Predict the structure.
Amino acid sequence: MSGPLNDFPDRAGVRQAIRSHDLTSFEFRDDSAEVLTFEGVASVVDTPYTVRDSLGEFTETIRAGAFNRTLRNAKADVALFINHDTRALPLATRAAGNLRLSADPNLRVVADLNPLRPSVQEARHAVADGQARQMSIGFRVPNDPAKDQWNADYTERVIHEINLHETSIVWQGASPTTSGGMRSFDELMESLVDLTLAEDDLRRAITALQLRLPADTPVEVTADLFAERDRADRERLERKIADRPPLAG
C-alpha cells in the first residue's frame, strides 16, 4: 500500500514490511584466511513490539513457526544486505550457499563472507564499533486472515506466516511509517504482478507509470482525479488524527 493510511482497517492491507531488532547476539569469526563468518539473530518471535504508522501505533507479534515455509522451500532465495540496500550486491545469499537460516524458534542467520570485499569489511567494523546495532528483515505477509490476524480495532496484529525476502545488518530500523510502502521500482512491479495492491493504489500506480510515457500518448485515467482523491484522503486522515485522544504515556 502506498501513501498514508486512511482508516484503521487499512492496516490489514499492508502486506510488505520491514522489522528490526537490537543486535544483541552476533559474532564475526575468522574461520580461515578466505572466510569471515557472521552470525546473528534477525528476528525474535513471540515477543510483542510496537509499530508506528500514519494512524499512530499498534502492537505486532511474529509467532514461532512463521518462517518455516520459507525455510522449507529450498528455492526461496534470501539475501543478506546492509541497510536494506537491495540495489547493491548482497553480502551472501541462500542460492549461493553462503547464507544459512534457521529458526530455534527465533530467526538466526549464519553467513560465510568474503573478507576481500570492501562491503564486508565495512559491515564488520560498523558492528564492532557499535554503529550497526540491529538486524532487520524484509518480508511479505500472505493475504490470508488465518496467517495475518488483527483484533477488532486494528491495534494488535499477530503474524503466523511470513514470506522472507531479505535480512540486513542495519544502523537502526527503517521508519515504521514507511515500512509498508514501496521501497523500489522492483517491489512495485512485484506487487503489480502479485495483485497485492488495493484497487485505488493499483490505479494510482498505473497512472504514475502512464505519466512517464510521451506527452502525446493517450492516457485513459487522468492524474487530476487521483490527486483530488488523495487530497480528500489526507484531509480526512488529518481530521481523524486531530479527533483522537492522545496516546497514554
Notes: Confidence is low (pLDDT under 50) at residues 174-187. Residues 14-180 form one domain. Helices lie at 68-72, 118-128, 185-194, 199-210, 223-243.
